[in-house]
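#data-curation
PF: Archiving a pair of folding outputs for the training set. Convention for this channel: one message per protein, sequence first, structure tokens after, nothing in between. First:
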Amino acid sequence: MSLLLVLAAVPAAAQQNVRVPVTQNGRTLQLAAQLFRPAHAAGAVPAVAIFHGCGGPGQNTARMAGLLASWGYAALVVDSFSARGLKDVCGRNWPTQADAEARAHDIDAALAWLGQQSNVDPKRLAFMGYSYGGGVALLRALSAQADDSKSSARADAPASPARAAILVYPDCALADALGPRLVVRQPTLFALAALDDWTPISQCKAVMDRIAQGRDLVETRTYEGAHHSFDALGLPVRYLDGVGNRSKPGGCCGAHYGANEAAWKAFVGDVKAFLAKVLARP
């Protein structure tokens, strides 16, 4: 059966538009977000905060949130762009390291907001980032090893209340600023596309090679035959010659992206199994 037909059979989740406050440069931004709740939840449920890629929230993040709700999780899709006056940063003005560092506070704010909701279990939280959002999530999933003075600027990243992280074809080059020796903070799933030339798998492998503590907390799934955005169902693979690309000299330009239904189906199964394991009740 086509995965699109399977998705059509997923029960609709209750959705609510909410605002998540985050402080940046001395002022408070109100991030737009959508909260998806399980249709028939009894008591406090585990929750996942979802962070989009360079194009902003899209069908892929909403689709995943709906699936999470159907599995019994609350899902918060956070829009990091609109409150900052952004729509799409996929072009030649690819987000800088400073942009990513600022956006990492959105993860802290979203987890704090979820932890305050009466229908959410604050001890069973996770976060999930896609592409650029996955690279930002990497800045919270990992930290510099405390005895590494060269990376002390990143050693002060706040402790996360999350029990798990999921990084979907993440921009692993953003982790370069964390230093040469890394610590994994919580169980972390890397979901990688074998043919990705936008956020190449080689960059993520280089990050994993620098993990000095917590390597046993990392799980990796590589989807053969898949390109970047393999979850963009219905979109044929094509080449975008104008997009920024941190993996190319000077950060420019061009990459393939597009759907691979088999990869996405496997990915859905992997996410479901991972979350069932790491967010199970103590």
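PF: Second:
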Amino acid sequence: MTTQAPEPTLTVDELASRAGVTVRTVRFYSTRGLLPPPAIGPRRVGHYGPDHLYRLALIEELQHQGMTLSAIERYLDALPDDLSAHDLAIHRALVATWAPDTALESSREELEKRVGRPLSDSDVQRLTAMNVLAPTPDGDAFRVDPGLLRLGVALLDVPIAHETIMTARTVLMEHARTAAHELTALFRDEVWGPFTQGESDPERVEAMKSLSAHMQPMVVQALVTAFQRSLKDELRAAFTAPE
């Protein structure tokens, strides 16, 4: 049975607020064809859905990485037409993986505007426990991990016990760290070592460092793809009744 996507219900003002951009930015992206047109409801009011929100987040992330609008257009044109909001979120996560680790400082009011919803004290505590937020000496401000923010806020509405989410996070972090360690050792021993052995040419060393940097997004995408397929197989085996 195919799950239908949620109906578009956001006005352009609500979409802009949820995405942390201006209405003018939304309209500009729409005129450039970067965002699909909204669904037109009663009184000719446009309504936007999750696919618009996540596509907008992807565009903003690509711009943050320094891509021009023309390059972003080419990037989006290369994506399949039937990508879901979930698929777009994964693309954004992959793009964000090769961004420098940066934390933002945000007030409670700015944070709520950024995520497009009020946050209770319990919500803030859960986000802090997930390392999405960290308190600052100023009691009204937080250090925010932008790469985890959307995921953390989405998890607030998942009907799973907080302890279960934290256990799942521990499992993921431990296995991710092991994979990163083993892949780094493989690259060091099989690629970096033979390439630089007996060589002192700075240009060769710089070329290898450049290759190392470019490999990161490819390795992340390979890991995400492998994990998605493995998880799908495991879920099918766990929840499909034997014939």
